[in-house]
Amino acid sequence: MQTNEPKTLTRDVEAAIVPVGTKVTLQKGEQAYITQSLGGAYTVIVNGNMFRIAGKDADALGLAVVETSVVASSGPVTLEQLEKQVWDALKTCYDPEIPVNIVDLGLIYDCQLTPVEENRYQAEVKMTLTAPGCGMGPVLAQDVQNKLLSLEPIDEANVELVWDPPWNQGMMTEAARLQLGLM
Prior knowledge:
Layout: E1 7-8, E2 13-17, E3 23-26, E4 31-38, E5 41-46, E6 49-54, H1 79-90, E7 108-117, E8 120-127, H2 137-149, E9 154-161, H3 174-179
Parallel strand pairs: 8-9
Antiparallel strand pairs: 1-4, 2-3, 2-6, 4-5, 5-6, 7-8
């Protein structure tokens, strides 16, 4: 959802400054222009600056809050089924400046699932960012962790930001390069 029509903030709302990641409070009554709404979060421009607003705060933009519920399984899942669910969940995480999910951007370097008890798992993710100085790292890592913990068999999710190897455009999927006009 990108709109040229401003949304008037209906209440004070916490946001992260893009790309530094610093938390600030946007004030009720300010005008926000939505530039991206992917993965349950909103990237907005307010007073010429870019911010990321969590989906749980969509009401501040005058939008409906979409509940992100735990993905319940109808019983035990196989490791293969859970791995698919994990990768599907990771594909719902987006960089606030780039309209491509972090998997297709090539930001996920590794994802390991370890059984902790019957049908209960721990997820370990190694991910990077498009630029080492990007302050949105903790915000994106928290988004990844939250999405993984929403999967019923995942009891613990640890996300580590790594810088080796350094990310480059060659790590993007063909679909991502095509979507961004790099092909």
